[in-house]
Amino acid sequence: MLELRAITAGYDRRAPAVRDASLTVAPGEAVGLLGPSGCGKSTLAKVAALLHRPDAGTLLVDGTRVRHWRHRAPRALRTAFGVVFQQPRLAADPRLRLADLIAEPLRATGRREAVRDRVAELAGTVGLTTDLLTRRPHEVSDGQLQRACLARALVLRPRWLICDEMTAMLDASTTAALVAVVEDYRASTGAGLLAVGHDRTLLNRWCDRTVHWDAVTSGTAEKTGGGEPAGHVTR
Questions:
Q1: SS3 227
Q2: What are the beta bridge partners of residue 30?
Q3: Is 133:126 a contact under the CB 8 Å cutoff?
Q4: From the CB of residue 189, how many other CB atoms can be counted at a distance below 10 Å?
Q5: What burial letters (b/e) apply to 154-187, b meaning 16+ CB within 10 Å?
Q6: What predicted TM-score, i.e. pTM, was given to this entire model?
Q7: Which residues, 6+ apart, have CB-to-CB distance to 233 below 8 Å?
Q8: How many Å apart are CA 58 and CA 62, to the nearest integer?
């Protein structure tokens, strides 16, 4: 279980982006977090993914309280999360070819022997051809780069996926393709998903339940209704 309890977080303690937010995601569950731009949902997603330490509140993973964030978190906990951000060009090192971008987490965790096979496997999964793997970010489209970023998020086989506006900059066909990849991964591994966005229709179709930001910050998140079952997105 992924549990965020009364989280307050931001980049200025005098004006936090998130105040007293609570949310849970069960193993294998897909939860959509719906809210307008600038409300603080991306900051909360970073807290959930261990990328931003909150000013107050508690994050629990499988009942254990998280006490360290980013590089200070234990490796086994850090690698349990895969994250895909809204803007792939800000999330990708422009010097790396797409193959190296996907392999980055493997090399960082000392799993170099798995690079060749895992990169080839995931490239096929996300729809990247061999020639695209030799290109750098500026040589591919936003959709192609986001496919590589999704592959990077999956490369360590995480138990939790955090997709922060993953499809906001993509066309409908690429959106459907990437959502299908995430859902196939969840179906085969039982991973939980927190999908952040402002497209109610997409979240309702993609996720088991959709929670509005107002409910998250008012203490009624667990009472809000869910959308249509996952898998209703046209693939």
A1: coil
A2: 193
A3: no
A4: 14
A5: bbbebbbbbbbbbbbbbeeebbbbbbbbbbebbe
A6: 0.89
A7: 176, 179, 180, 183, 202, 205, 206
A8: 13
Cα 185 to Cα 172: distance, rounded to the nearest angstrom: 20
Contact 41, 213 (CB under 8 A): yes
User: Which segment of 23-37, 72-86, 190-204, 213-227 scores lowest on mean pLDDT?
Assistant: 213-227
Least Cα distance to 109 among 76, 66, 141 occurs for 76
Which among 235, 150, 224, 234 is positioned nearest to 193, based on CA atoms? Answer: 150
Task: Supply 187's token pair.
Answer: 């179906």
Lay out the sheet containing 2-9: strands in order across: 18-25, 2-9, 56-61, 64-65
3-state secondary structure 70-92: HHHCCHHHHCCEEEECCCHHHHC
Tell me the CA distances in angstroms from 137 to 24, 148, 165, 201, 224, one per residue in order.
35, 10, 19, 30, 39
Say yes or no to pLDDT of 221 above 70: no
